[in-house]
Amino acid sequence: NTKVYYIDEHDTDKIKEAAEIIASGGTVVFPTETVYGLGANALDEKACEKIFTAKGRPQDNPLIVHVADFDLSKYVTDISENAKKLMEAFWPGPLTIIMPKKDIVPLTTTGGLDSVAIRMPSNKIARKLIEFSGVPIAAPSANISGRPSPTTIEHCINDLTGKVDMIIGGEKCDVGLESTVVDTTGDEVVILRPGGITKEMLEEVVGNVSIDPAIMEKASEGLRPKSPGMKYRHYAPKAPLTIIKGDLNNVIKYVNEKTDELSNYGYKVGVMATDETIKKYNANIKISVGDRKESGIIAANLFDVLREFDKIDVDYIYAEGFSEEGLGLAIMNRLKKAAGYNVIEV
Ligand code: TXA
Ligand code: MG
């Protein structure tokens, strides 16, 4: 009972059909430039409850509200100067801004918080869907909670068939990692989740930007991420994943020794390599996530590669680490979460 339409932004009739589902309280999976989203009317409590049920998402994990118009006065009580500058610089695009909410936005949408996360996507299907439905659309990533976020329509079909009213799209997501989430309510802008808009890009617009210290390490008492979603295990493939960081020659040597040892016991080892290194691993199952020099490509491929390892059914996965500069911060944030913060320095 889930309708699936492979469409592009010119299929206005299909997008209107999807918009009617949203307007009448249903759920639609749709593409954005970051990852696919599982959308419902953000102002309709019952509709948003369907999102949590379909994903198996904890109730205290707030949703991002997607808009197509810069006028947010109906939804928020205040827009800080920093927020205004960031909206102007990066919207439409992969930046989500936390603002104090008005009562019209239900607590179901914000996971009980008095703030709301808002983003204007640049993807044309997403923009038309929001415009045609006439309401803001709450949309978390369109995966079952805990699995890697979906960057292709096939990922969404695998996870959510039978659980949502409609799935539309077809294109692979450009960015491939979820949006950067920032808190602009204090004097200094704080990154709560790194993403396609990097710290360096934000700093060009608003000066010094800090990073929530909890996001690159395992959550613990006293180190609790400000963005509720960041505390959950996420992006995880079924097999245990270990990141090996260090000089690449050492990484290759370490992984090859481990592969030999584990193979002797009959285990299947998978390696997440890069174009530069893939030939040097002796594991049977190895997938390149892209060219090390092209962090945009690595970001766009990461979740798909993690899902590939599940299809092949490996027992252990080793992944090369990356620098945490620029987009690398978001890449390593997702990879570390996928690995349960299991990182070995060699
Ligand atoms: O790129 C994206 O942002 C995608 C596409 C579909 O737009 N959406 C997405 O949503 O990644 P989701 O639900 O998977 O992640 C939302 C993140 C979570 O980490 C959540 O905790 C945080 O945003 N968040 C939402 N509202 C918040 C709030 N009021 N305060 C702090 N963090 C918030
Ligand atoms: Mg998500």
UniProtKB/TrEMBL annotation:
One of its GO terms (molecular function) is tRNA binding. ATP binds at residues 57, 61, 149, 193, 235. It catalyses: L-threonine + hydrogencarbonate + ATP = L-threonylcarbamoyladenylate + diphosphate + H2O. It is found in: Cytoplasm. GO terms for biological process: regulation of translational fidelity; tRNA processing. One of its GO terms (cellular component) is cytoplasm. This is Threonylcarbamoyl-AMP synthase.
